[in-house]
Specification:
heterodimer, A: 383 residues, ABC transporter involved in vitamin B12 uptake, BtuC, 16 helices, 73% helix, B: 313 residues, mainly alpha, two-stranded antiparallel sheet
């Protein structure tokens, strides 16, 4: 009796419920992914799904494993910031699907400052934050003053920014390829310093202070949302815009500010990746990079909690990187995108899951209470 | 000039079809952000039919079967939204976004798997339908008439009649305005919303195949449909959720989209010497500007986006 009570109260706690829901989403996502692999080619499906989940353990030697763990982490930090961007806006009742576009302008600004203007890394990073914030604020202004749904305006801006950045970065691309010049050859000062962190990961030169920086930003965002007056006001605006206005909060400014912060986070995300030199921008890209969209998956999978997103971002990046190792003669690496998309879809059901779980628990508690009552009554009658 | 008219009409057809789809879904009370994904699925269905039909099939059968395939794929895929949003009361924005990502990812995985199984060296996500595409086209002098233009016009007329002149349409709109009131007079809100989403799946799927056959003869599924589903949503909002205005809005947007295909044919546009990316951006910029000026007095269905719960008033 005592034991079930304890378990019940544990199940009642929202944190545990979110965790359970996320794990369930992951499990179902992987299961459906496995079924799809089975349908494509039954011979290698089991091996492929294990490859995706194992990611860098694909390499037999410990040194190589560490090195590729480092690479996964390098890509986790931008993803973490993208998911924070989505999360921050969502807490204020806005759906920032424009994280992808803000990420694009962040990449454009930081690379242009680094390659064309020869700026040091911290200025490039600030430029990326500013560019992302500006784009985010634009969606916010359209929402606050012109009543334009932020989802639609964000999508339009995603495409506009992609074409703009492609045009801008064509000025600093390599002569014979569509890729931008490498930072190492053009402006080594724009590379984010490693401070010896790389040596922890078998001399992975791309492991830099970008990784601890992203975790630091996560903590700052958590504090901002949970412990400050501004965070409280922003969340109040999200819950009920009219009530917030009635209480004297400036709801229009709050919407714009929120989108600017969310945009700044996504812009910074891009600089944390491109300023490590891990990737070069391809000026002929015809699709918006997936990082911003994966941020949506990570935000919801993390139960919309900044600390939770650290783990969910890592997981999403882990399977995305793992997808690169599947046997290309049978499957394509997009199977990871497929699984993350499935996970977002399943996250739509989380509310229903919590509702059903609570309902069940409540009904059981009621039944037990009634039984206890009946037992007590009986005892009273006998006496 | 004929080329500009031709491209404007074909892109407007896509926009009309998909925006009407969104219109049905939203009038029933469900926001359909997932139109983009539905278009990809419809495009996939149609492209597969084009690829695998024997070349000696008559043009009529070719058009019919392709349309059927696209419509079926779109409708089945839209069930994902209907089940989540209507039966499970899920957040419609999250589910719609997931459907967009899922559509592109699933189509890419599938097409790549298919291409590699036919030829192990082919890892692209492209389907070609150069010869089969000719079934849709009729040459009228310099103008290439496409049967899909006619289809879009028919869909427009049917939608108008269905929404405003039939019992079904009026009931559907009641469910989007005030579902509780609709329920109180015996309308099954859940059924109506399923119907709305399914119709949007049918029209969205059809729009998808029209889009990927407009002007090109192969499609790379990794790219999805390049935001066209969202452009259609903008057309729907600009058209204030009314079929007749949606048609006008679609023509305007179609014109700007067509410019990026044919601007090289106009001397005065070439004289401006703008980079091609400006023309690529144009439809998106125009739609943002237009939305900024028209969203203020929005006539969106009142109850859209709110899951219907029988127990609530």
């Amino acid at each position: 009796m005592e034991k079930t009570k304890k378990r019940d109260s544990l199940l009642h706690s929202p944190g545990v419920q979110s965790l359970l829901a996320s794990l369930l989403c992951i499990l179902i996502g992987l299961l459906v992914g496995y079924l799809v692999l089975l349908a494509i080619n039954p011979a290698g499906a089991g091996k492929a799904i294990i490859t995706i989940v194992r990611n860098f353990f694909y390499y037999p030697s410990r040194a190589a494993q560490l090195k590729y763990l480092g690479s996964t982490l390098v890509k986790t930090s931008p993803l973490l910031l993208c998911s924070l961007s989505v999360l921050f806006a969502y807490k204020v009742g806005l759906f920032n699907i424009g994280a992808a576009g803000q990420y694009v302008v962040g990449a454009g600004a930081s690379l242009y400052c680094a390659l064309a203007l020869d700026m040091p890394w911290y200025l490039c990073l600030l430029a990326a934050v500013a560019a992302g914030a500006l784009l985010g604020a634009l969606s916010g202004i359209l929402k606050a003053y012109c009543n334009v749904n932020e989802v639609i305006s964000c999508i339009m801006l995603n495409w506009i920014s992609l074409y703009m950045v492609n045009t801008l970065l064509t000025n600093v691309k390599e002569y014979a390829s569509p890729y931008t010049l490498t930072l190492a050859s053009t402006n080594p000062g724009a590379l984010i310093p490693g401070l010896g962190l790389g040596s922890l990961f078998t001399d992975n030169q791309y492991v830099t202070i970008a990784i601890p920086l992203s975790v630091l930003v996560t903590v700052v965002i958590w504090v901002l949302l949970e412990k400050t007056k501004l965070g409280y006001e922003l969340k109040a605006t999200g819950f009920n815009k009219d009530a917030a206005q009635y209480c004297g909060m400036r709801e229009k400014q709050n919407i714009i500010l929120t989108m600017a912060i969310a945009g700044g986070l996504a812009g910074m995300a891009a600089s944390l990746l491109y300023l490590t030199g891990f990737e070069q921008w391809s000026c002929t890209q015809s699709a918006v990079p997936a990082m911003g969209f994966n941020g949506i998956a990570a935000a919801f999978l993390g139960g919309l909690n900044p600390i939770g997103t650290i783990f969910s971002s890592y997981f999403i990046q882990h399977i995305t990187s793992g997808g690169a190792y599947v046997d290309k003669t049978m499957y394509s690496s997009q199977i990871s995108d497929f699984i993350s998309a499935l996970i977002i879809y399943l996250c739509g059901f989380v509310l229903f899951f919590k509702y059903a779980l609570n309902n069940r628990l409540d009904r059981r508690a009621e039944r037990e209470a009634r039984a206890a009552q009946a037992a007590a009554n009986q005892e009273g009658g006998e006496r | 000039m004929a080329l500009l008219v031709q491209y404007t009409l074909i892109f407007a057809s896509v926009l009309v079809l998909v925006a009407l789809g969104g219109c049905f879904s939203e009038h029933s009370g469900v926001i359909n952000i997932g139109l983009e994904g539905i278009m990809v699925m419809g495009a996939l269905g149609g492209a597969l039919m084009l690829k695998f039909l024997p070349p000696e099939t008559s043009a009529f059968m070719m058009v019919l079967l392709t349309v059927l395939a696209a419509v079926t794929f779109g409708a089945v895929y839209s069930l994902l939204l209907a089940v989540a949003a209507v039966s499970f009361k899920a957040d419609q924005t999250i589910v719609g976004t997931a459907m967009n990502l899922l559509g592109t990812a699933a189509a890419t995985v599938f097409v790549k798997a298919m291409n590699t199984s036919i030829n192990p060296n082919n890892v692209s996500s492209t389907i070609q339908y150069i010869a089969a595409k000719k079934a849709f086209l009729v040459k009228l002098g310099g103008f290439e008439f496409n049967w899909f233009m006619l289809l879009a016009a028919i869909a427009l007329a049917c939608s108008y009649v269905l929404l405003y002149k039939t019992r079904f349409g009026l009931r559907l709109m009641a469910c989007g305005e005030h579902p509780q009131a609709a329920d109180s007079v015996g309308i099954n809100v859940y059924k109506m919303r399923y119907a709305g989403v399914l119709i949007s799946g049918i029209l969205g799927g059809l729009g998808g195949i029209v889009y990927i056959t407009a002007g090109v003869s192969e499609w790379k599924f990794e790219n999805g449909v390049a935001g066209f589903g969202f452009l259609s949503l903008a057309v729907m909002i600009f058209g204030q959720w009314r079929p007749s205005r949606i048609a006008l809005a679609a023509l305007l947007f179609g014109l700007f989209r067509a410019l990026s295909n044919v601007y090289t044919g106009f001397d005065f546009l070439m004289a401006l010497n703008l980079p091609s990316s400006v023309y690529n951006m144009l439809p998106y910029i125009i739609s943002l500007v237009v939305l900024a000026f028209t969203s203020g007095k929005s006539r969106a269905p009142r109850a859209e986006g709110i899951p219907y719960d029988k127990g609530q008033r």
